Amino acid sequence: MKIAIIGGGPGGLYFGALMKQLDPAHEVTVWERNAASDTFGFGVVFSDETLGGIGNADAVVADYMSRRFARWSDIDIHFKNETITVGGQGFAAMSRKELLELLQRRCTELGVDLRFSTMAPPVEELEAGYDLVLAADGVNSQIRAKYADSFGPDLDPRPNKYMWLGTDQVFEAFKFFVKETEFGVMQIHGYPYSDAGSTFIVEMHEDVWRAAGFDETADTVFPPGVSDEKAIAKIREIFAEELDGSEVLANNSKWLNFTTVRNRNWRHGNVVLLGDAAHTAHFSIGSGTKLAMEDALALAACLHEQQDLESALAAYELERRPVVESTQRAAQASLEWFERIGQYKDQHPTQFAFNLLTRSRRITQDNLRLRDPEFAELVDRHFAESQGLQQVAPAMFQPYTIGGLELKNRIIVSPMDMYSAVDGVPGDFHKVHLGSKALGGAGLVMTEMVCVSEEGRITPGCTGLYNEDQQDSWKDIVGFIHGQSSAKIGVQLGHAGRKASTRLMWEGIDEPLESGNWEAIGPSALPYGPGSQTPREIDRAEMDKVKADFVAATRRAAEAGFDLLEVHAAHGYLLSSFLSPIANQRSDEFGGSLENRLRFPLDVFDAVREAWPAEKPLTVRISATDWIEGGNTLDDAVEIARAFAAHGADGIDVSTGQIGKEEAPAYGRSYQTPYADRIRQEVAEPAGIAVIAVGAISSYDDANSILLAGRADLIALGRTHLYNPQWTLHAAAEQEYKGEAAEWIPQFRAGRRKPPSSRTDAIRPRLSLLHDTEDEQSPNHLRWQPVKTADPALMR
Question: Entry's PANTHER family (predicted)?
């Protein structure tokens, strides 16, 4: 093949070297506009997985890198004049300059044509004259921009400001310095890369950056290689204590906004993107160099394995895209956490450290228990102490009081519509469904959305609380749960609004009924989606009737004996559609501004609060984002939550979306938890009320991690409980927890031990005389302590 590479960074150079190794007959040319000696940045970090791949592909490169690595396993988190050290992580870093020199030398040895200080020919010329054109030209890729219609780039510039610096202080571990200044919270990401220096990245929110006066040079255009010395002088002053007399080193250092780069496609004909041109991931979880070199490995292998170029490029993207997207999801969670770091400034150092470590959701409490058991135990102990609890236990099995209601644990069976009622009356199915979840160990079991009127049902199979038969049936179910378990039961009240009169879920979710339909109502005459019924715009008299229906249903819920009531103001149902500008386009006092859109939902909530017993908790479920352009955002959700808190809510149940069919949710593990987190920090904790996290939380480890980090107070799980009604009890068994928070009822107690699934007679022999004793330095705590020598000749 004849290969053109635009960009002489690690990814492009490594790809060139790999291709020449696979077949010396390949003609490989690299164009790099900067000089060979121009190196921007300080250190680069690699994972053991990446290093293993490099070792398999090129032993020469791997051997040199391994001899230059700084290796360590500790993370030091400096916060509020305390240092929390967490071990067992595993890092390897080296100088970016040394890495580039190595790769340049390797390319020269193998016969790659390197053309530094040279602009590449026009890409059209390269496409015509080469079999493959590799665009490794970075985050500001000109080739990606030229073929934007094919690549479909999505560039997301973030609000935080950061500057890539170095220091001659040699850190012993990965360092997070989180400093509350008079201007706001600033942070340092630091790590060693040699026996001579460390990377020192300064980051802060743009508001903090402006308050500190760093915007003084915002309009200055710095030539390549020139650093913002005025800003660097201020950084030296602000972080003098952390630098401890060491120097700050600059290298083309200036303020930047991190841009997350995504592309719909990575190839256009024989042109393919690699590294930052194709994708970026925030520096707080890894290295762009790592991703680029992994790309190079995969692309070279695919070209070698496939019969033709088109198949090879398709295989490359198919192989790498899932890995990159997984990394980007974690990076997105991490960068958003650092953008909001100021909201955690009042946390205790132990909780803050745990929160920081678990920010991307890739590290959890169980991970930390394996990596550093002492720290994991410290976190559990601190959580218990902070809650005023005597027993140290998994966080999910610590009791919680919401309003005046004490729950034995923090697990909730989330409301799930079953579409199995007859004339709104719950029957034996609901008794078995909810009863089994209560017997399965959850602290609180929630009903499905119980409709406040016949016309307020979603489907003909939805339950209600608008007549005596329904009340009596619910009372029987509540009585069974109270009589047979220690669980509490809550009712969720709602009105379907414009999503009313649709088919049962398994017959066509959100699709209109073929017959027997009834008229839907909404704040505006706007359908939920294509093919949906167009609702009639509700008038003031009907709004009063809906409010009266909520009040009547609330009184019936109290008579039925429910322990907690939740008002459903999420998922595009009537109250939710009033809150959202997607569904509410009224011109009266109930539409327009958020204050106006809140007016009717708050009016209903106030009426429910007055009708519901004061000693029983009242919560509200909201959609924290519409996932639709022009709809509600998290900023709006904070104000919505604040309004309900001010009107007496005891808890905010934080969900998202389902406002309109055109939504585009960013699904993923625990994907709604960041919304609950922000509402808890800004609204619920100051108000002394609860926040419930829900959405793709499926493991006890995730549940514990969310609670320990202070992102929520209670965890609601839906589908998980359909898969395993006794999920909570099984989680207790797996964590070896025994106590009142997870008691098996007497009838089931014989099954509380997990049945054996393999040999039970494999008794292992003792093969050592004595147990191993710990070394002075625990294997979980490896710190970078380079051996210094005064002899320059030996250093060479």
Answer: BLR3436 PROTEIN (PTHR43303:SF3), NADPH DEHYDROGENASE C23G7.10C-RELATED (PTHR43303)
CA 510: distance to chain centroid?
29
CB atoms closer than 10 angstroms to residue 293? 30
Q: Where are the alpha helices (H) located in 440-584, listed in sequence order?
A: 468-484, 505-508, 540-560, 574-579
> Phi/psi at 191 (nearest 5 deg)?
-160, 150
User: Of 573, 675, 700, 737, which is the active-site residue?
Assistant: 573
722 closest CA partner among 459, 432, 477: 432
Least confident of 1-5, 54-58, 540-544, 616-620: 54-58
Backbone region of residue 657 per phi and psi (left: phi > 0; alpha: psi in -120 to 50; beta: other values):
left
Report residue 459 as tokens.
């489907």
Quote the pLDDT of residue 165: 97
Sign of CA dihedral 270, 276, 277, 280: positive
Q: Are 486 and 397 in contact, with CB atoms under 8 Å apart?
A: no
Q: Is the separation of the CB atoms in 365 and 705 below 8 Å?
A: yes
The radius of gyration of the chain from alpha carbons, rounded to an integer in Å, stands at 30
Q: Which of 761 and 781 is assigned the larger pLDDT?
A: 781
Backbone phi and psi for residue 91, each to the nearest 5 degrees, phi listed first: -135, 150
3-state secondary structure at position 84: strand
Burial 322-338 (b: 16+ CB within 10 A, else e): eebeebbbbbbbbbbbb
Which pLDDT value is given to residue 764?
59
User: Does residue 771 surpass a pLDDT of 70?
Assistant: no
- Quick one: how many helices (H) and strands (E) in the chain? 28, 29
Task: Please state, in angstroms and rounded to a whole number, the distance separating the CA atoms of residues 681 and 683.
Answer: 6
The residues near 131 (Cβ < 8 Å, ≥ 6 apart) are: 1, 2, 3, 270, 309
Query: Which residue, among 680, 687, 570, has the nearest Cα to 624 in the 3D structure?
Result: 570
Query: Which amino acid is located at 597 in the chain?
Result: R
Active site residue 191: no
Task: Report how far residue 612's alpha carbon sits from residue 60's, in angstroms, rounded to the nearest whole number.
Answer: 74
d(CA 792, CA 796): 6
For residue 72, the surrounding DSSP H or E stretch is strand 70-72
Q: d(Cα 525, Cα 533) in Å, to the nearest integer?
A: 10
Closest alpha carbon to 502 in 490, 514, 485, 484: 514
Neighbour order of strands in the sheet with 70-72: 43-46, 91-95, 70-72
Q: Find all residues with CB under 8 Å of 246, minimum gap 6, and list them.
A: 167, 168, 169
Average pLDDT over residues 108-118: 97
CA distance 361 to 643: 30
Could you give phi then psi for residue 161, rounded to 5 degrees? Answer: -100, 140
- Identify the sign of the CA torsion 100, 103, 109, 113: negative
CA 644 to CA 622: how far, in whole Å?
A: 10
> Model confidence over 423-468: pLDDT tens digits?
999 999 999 999 999 999 999 999 999 999 999 999 999 999 999 9
Residue-level pLDDT at 793: 40
Q: Name the nearest CA neighbour of 375 among 397, 402, 349, 400.
A: 349
The region, left, alpha or beta by phi > 0 then psi within -120 to 50, assigned to residue 703 is alpha
Q: Are 428 and 477 in contact (CB under 8 A)?
A: no
Beta bridge partners of 576: none
Q: What pLDDT band is residue 792 in, cutting at 50, 70 and 90? A: very low
Give the range among 164-168, 614-618, 772-776 with minimum mean pLDDT: 772-776
Q: What are phi and psi of 463, to 5 degrees?
A: -80, 160
- Positive or negative, the Cα torsion across 682, 684, 688, 690? negative
Q: Which two tokens stand for residue 401?
A: 């009081």
Nearest to 137 by CA among 296, 9, 325, 242: 9
Is the predicted pLDDT of residue 778 greater than 60, yes or no?
no
Of the CA atoms within 13 Å of residue 494, those in its CB half-sphere come to 36
* Residue 49: band (very low, low, confident or very high) from pLDDT cuts 50, 70, 90: confident
